[in-house]
Write a structure and sequence with these properties.
By secondary structure, the chain is α+β, with helices and mostly antiparallel strands. Helices cover 58% and strands 15% of the residues. The strands form four sheets. A four-stranded antiparallel β-sheet has the order 8-5-10-9, sandwiched between helices. Strands 2-1-11 form a three-stranded antiparallel β-sheet.
């Protein structure tokens, strides 16, 4: 019996050794080769980690209502995991080439920049538990290498784009302040339907009457001088959040936008009903210029990015890039960072 027990332990150790060897082998396996530089999973894991954070945030907000994981959500016949992998590959290659160009042209990180890299590495490591570090595969060496590369790439990009000429006045003339007038609101909301798998299913008639009655009671309280803080917590299913939009946005229902645009600052709406539920809107700022300013800055940056892309396309011709698609395409991001 003892011999059998020992044999089982030996077998388990053998299996563990094989698994660890496979993991190490995968981490050392070349994913992309740029000239003579071989990039492995260690060079990708930080970018994969960032995409996993995005997935987690998305799932916290929408998974329950949509009934689908972020990676499985499809956009133009591609899952978000496929799009994420394309984005990661593009970003890793971009940063490798820009970092290489920075070094070729004599850009180095000064003591202050090196200190910033170290500070950012320490901050990220301190924010992660031992379990998270083990699960993600991140460590000081990997993060320091990734952050140094990013700092070199950024330094080259900023130096390059600083010399780009952009006709800011001309760009500003093409953007209408009225079109980008932003309405900043907050609202109280009670749902009247379930939204799952991109399908809206209305509540039963009795439930609809109850939630509408609750919303009318809330409206009466507000008419009597109560604010949102005082109302919250006294009604089941009630949520409160901010919504900002311009009239062309699709992130707010038409009924909501139409009611909101009629409100003066600090004014409250009546009960507004959409296919998703009932709202009471509080107008915070009905003429914010922030979206207008951001649109102008985005347009200026887009012009600089267009000039940069032309430069980058020329740079790419000087590099021999080989992607190990057979390995990269089969990598499962979910299994890399999940328990």
């Amino acid at each position: 019996m003892k011999k059998r027990h020992i044999a089982i332990i030996v077998l388990l150790l053998l299996i563990l050794t094989i698994s660890l060897t496979f993991l190490v082998s995968n981490k050392r396996k070349v994913i992309v080769e740029i000239d003579s530089t071989k990039l492995t999973l260690d060079d990708f894991i930080y970018d994969i980690y960032l995409l996993e954070l995005e997935r987690k945030i998305w799932n916290e907000k929408y998974k329950e209502s949509l009934g689908i994981d972020y990676w499985d959500y499809e956009f133009e016949d591609m899952t978000m995991e496929q799009l994420a992998k394309d984005s990661i590959m593009t970003r890793v290659i971009l940063n490798e080439i820009l970092s290489d160009q920075a070094k070729k042209e004599g850009y180095t990180l000064n003591n202050e920049e090196l200190a910033t890299v170290e500070k950012n590495v320490n901050k990220l490591l301190a924010s992660m538990s031992e379990v998270e570090l083990k699960k993600t595969g991140l460590n000081r060496d990997i993060l320091t290498n990734s952050f140094n590369k990013l700092a070199h790439a950024d330094k080259y990009y900023l130096a390059l784009t600083a010399d780009y000429e952009v006709d800011e006045a001309s760009i500003k003339n093409t953007i209408s302040p009225n079109e980008y007038r932003e309405y900043i609101t907050e609202c109280l909301f009670i749902p009247t339907a379930e939204f799952r798998d991109q399908q809206i299913t209305p509540y039963q008639e009795d439930d609809l009457k109850k939630v509408h009655k609750s919303m009318l009671e809330i409206r009466d309280l507000i008419l009597n001088g109560y604010n949102f803080d005082e109302v919250m917590g006294h009604f089941n299913g009630l949520t409160r959040y901010e919504r900002s939009f311009i009239l062309s946005d699709k992130n707010a229902e038409e009924e909501y936008k139409e009611a909101a645009r009629k409100l003066n600052n600090d004014e409250y709406s009546d009960v507004i009903t959409t296919s998703f539920g009932h709202y009471i809107i509080h107008m915070l700022d009905n003429n914010s210029s922030e979206r207008y300013k951001k649109t102008i800055q985005d347009a200026i940056q887009d012009e600089k990015d267009a000039q940069f892309r032309m430069h980058y396309d020329i740079l790419l011709k000087d590099y021999d890039i080989t992607i190990n698609s057979e390995y990269w395409d089969t990598l499962d991001l979910d299994s890399l960072l999940q328990d």
